[in-house]
Structures
1.
Amino acid sequence: MTSSDTSVQPDSAGRSVSVRRRPVLLVLADSLSYFGPKGGLAADHPQIWPNIVAAELDWDVELVARIGWTCRDAWWALTQDPRVWAAVPKAGAVVFAVGGMDSLPSPLPTALRETIRYVRPPALRRAVREGYQWLQPRLAPLGRPVALPPRLSVDYLESSRDALAYMRPELPVIATLPSVHRSAAYANVHSGRPAAAAAITAWANDKQIPVVDLAEAVRDDICSANANPDGIHWGWAGHGAVAAAMIAAIRAAAPEPVDASPSDAG
C-alpha cells in the first residue's frame, strides 16, 4: 500500500467519494524505538523516531516493540501478534529495527534473563535479579557469547522478510544495523557489533533491502550529555537523526513516490 491507495465511502449527501487511506508504518523494534533521554515513553510520543517518520510521510504508525527484543522476538511478533496481522495489509513499509540487542555480550544465558520474572517467591526473584545485574557487567568483557549469533539473527530476519513477501510481495522492508553504546551494564563492550553488522549487510544486499545504520545516525548523540544516562538509549537528536535516515530509506524503497497531500475526489 502506498499513499495513493483509496477507498470509496459515502459523504454526508450519500454520494460516493474516493478517500485516501493513510498507509501504516509498521515498526518491529526494541526499546531504542521508544526510550528517550529520561526513560521509556508511550508509543504515541511525538519525539520518538517512528512518529517523526510517520508525521513527515503523513502515515499512521504501528509500533510493536519491547525492551530487550532481538530479531527472534520480531519474528515471534510477526507470527503471533494479531496487531501485526492487522497492520500488514495496510502497511506502506515495514521496518526491522532490531538486531542491536542480538550483538551485545551475553555471557549469562539469555533464557536466564528472560525467566527471572517468573521466579517465585518475590524475595528470591529480587535476589536472582540482583545477582544477574552484578554478574553481567563483570562478565561482559569476555565479549561472548552474544545474545543471538549473527547467523541466527539473519535467519530470523529472512524468515520475517519471506513471510511478508508471501503476503505482500510489493511491500517495502527496511533493515537496520546495530546502534552503539557506552553502557556500564555491558562494561562498554560491543565487540559483537562488527560481525552482526556484516551479516545483516550481506543479507540485505542479497535481498536488495535498504539498510539504515543506527550507529552512524546516533554516534554523536550517544556520546553526548544529552543521551540517556544508561549509555544505551538516545537523546532527541539521536531520534531525529534516525528519523531522517529512515525517511530517506522509505522514500527510496517505496514503489510509488510518497505524497503527503490528500487525494480526496468527488
2.
Amino acid sequence: MDGMDGMDGGPGDGALGEHPGTAESAAGDADVDLLEEELRQAAAVLDPLPPALLQIAVDAHALHDLDTRVAELTFDSLVDAIPVRGAEDPPRMLTFSVGEVTVDVEVTAHGLMGQLLPPRPARIEVLGGPQPGPSLTADDMGRFTGATPPSGPFALRLWTAGNVVETEWLRT
C-alpha cells in the first residue's frame, strides 16, 4: 500500500521542501511552451494572418520613433455622445490630444474635416493600409478637409513645425 496513499514524498503530496522551481515545475513550463507553439502553428494554418494586415503592423511598428508623438483618443461620439433622436447617419466626432496639440476630426460618408488646436498649418496623411493614403493640408487656422472618407482602420499622421504627431488607430 506504500505510495498509494499520496503520502509517499512524491510530487503533489504536500511534503515539505517541494518548491515551484523544482524539476517538476520546469517540466510543466516546457509542456506549456510546447502547447503554445502547437497552438501558434494551428492558428497559422487554420486562420493565417492576411498579408495586408501584417504589412500594416510592420509599418505601425516602424513608426515607433522618438520624434513621433502619439495623440490619444479623448472623445469619440460613438461612445461618449448622447444620441440625437431623428438624426440619420450622424457624423462621427473624434478628438485626439497629445501635450498642447489637439486634433478635432469629423468623419462622414462624404469625407472628413478637422482642425488642429492651437491653429497652425500642417501636412496630414490619412493612414489606412499598405498603400499611402491621401495627403491633406491644414491652413493657417489649422483647418483641413478630405473628400474621401477613410474605410477600415485609419489614423492621421501630422507634420507641423518640425513635430510629427500620429493619432491612435480607429476603425470607421
3.
Amino acid sequence: MSQDPGDRPDIRVRRTRAQLRSALLSLAGERGYQKVTVGDIAEHAMINRATFYRYYEDKDDLAADILVHAARSTGRSSPITGGPLDMTARIASGALLFDHIAQHDRLYRPLLAYPRSRRFLIRARSLLGDLVQERIDAVPKPAERLMPEEMVVTFAAELFLGMAAWWLENGTAHSSRQMSTWFTQFLFFGYFNVLGLDDLLPRPPHRPGP
C-alpha cells in the first residue's frame, strides 16, 4: 500500500514519492497508462525498482496516490473551518480537481472509464475516504449522527469516482466547473436539487411559537 515508511515522512521520502508521481504522469501522457511499466517509472524517476516497491504495491497504487494527492492539494483552497461552508470556494476547488483529471486523461481514462480497474478503484476509494474523514473530523460533532460516518465517507468517495468516470466516458463534454457544481450540489443537497425538483421535496412541519 502507498504508505510512507515511518510515522512522519522526511524530506527524502516526500521527494521520492513526488518523483514517482511526476514520472507516471509524464509517461502516461506520452504513451498511455497501459503501456507504462514499473520499470519505466523507476527509470524515469532515476531510482531502482526495489525503491519503488518500498512505497507502492504497483502502478495502480501509485496512480491512486496521484489522484488523492491532487484532491488534497486542490482542497486546500476550500478549508473546513467549522463555520458555514463556502460553497463558491468548494466548487472552485473541485473544478481544479476535475481540471487535473482532464489534463491527465491518458492516465485516468483507462482506470476510471469502462472497463474499470478494480484494484485502482478499491485503493482510490480507500484513500479518498480517508481524506473525506479528515474533513468530517475538522468540524464539531453533533450529539447524534443521522447516518453512520462510514456510509457518508463511502458515498462521497464513490460519488466523485462515479462522476469522474462518467465525465471521461462522455468525452469531458461539460466544463470542469459544471462537473464540480453538480458534484457539490449532489453531495450537499441531494439529487432533487441537482434535477431542479426542489419544489417536490416535503416541507418541514410548521413549528408554532411558544
